Amino acid sequence: MASAPENEAFTPEDIFILSGQSNMSGRGGVDKHNHWDGIVPPECCSDPAKIFRLSAHLNWEMACEPLHHDIDTKKTCGIGPGMSFANAIKDKMGAIGLVPCAVGGTALKEWGKGTHLYENMINRARAAMHQGGKIKALLWYQGESDTLYKHRVETYKANMEKLIHNVRTDLYMPFLPIIQVAIASGEGKYTEKIRQAQKRIDLPNVVCIDAMGLQLKEDKLHLTSDAQVKLGQMFADAYLTHFAATKHSSVHSSVKRSFFCCCLN
């Protein structure tokens, strides 16, 4: 069981789990030589009074890019959607706590209950709530690795629904809001089939936003920094539209799953 954050004098009121694979942990601004350019868009700037992150050592600290630098450690992290999301909602929330959990290159089966990735995510979420903060939503962006094999496509919807059930059960939050992304790219030829599986998930308090149309880097797999800013704002729009009026994540008047698509300008 995870220990509590060492900074026990402070816990953000409103906590968001960020999980999935590389487009959640962020590769914006990272070049082909795995060097991050260090450029932080204004929408992703830090706010030491409002936006915090849970470090790998379970300490609350001021959030800054790259959010996943000590979590997704095998590759270079850059700009992801987390900071633009937090900045877009901060005026309507209390102190925001971001809990980075995403790891690049991970297939959905690697997030099954009992795996290292799953247990680490649950333990970090529990630690984040130790001093009374409330988890408001899980933001999930994953699936590119599952486009490689047909059998992964065939089981994706059922496995994702099982993951959602497991997370809600283990956190004792049966109506925890989930905002997932319909992927914009893939490592294999089944990208569209994974997208369709993601859109067909039909559970209460599950909303899907569509990343298709957001700009990709030269690798045709990862979102650019500008695209990550837009994605974070799409997450924010979805959260504010569907869940912001909810005073507690475990509210029983849960919303019906819906597909939420932001227009890209």
Automatic annotation (TrEMBL):
One of its GO terms (molecular function) is hydrolase activity. Gene3D superfamilies: SGNH hydrolase. InterPro entries: Carb_Esterase_6, SASA, SGNH_hydro_sf. Keywords: Hydrolase. The keyword Hydrolase applies. The keyword Nucleus does not apply. Residues 13-240 form the Sialate O-acetylesterase domain. It comes from the Eukaryota. PANTHER family: 9-O-ACETYL-N-ACETYLNEURAMINIC ACID DEACETYLASE-RELATED, ESTERASE, PUTATIVE (DUF303)-RELATED. This is Carbohydrate esterase.
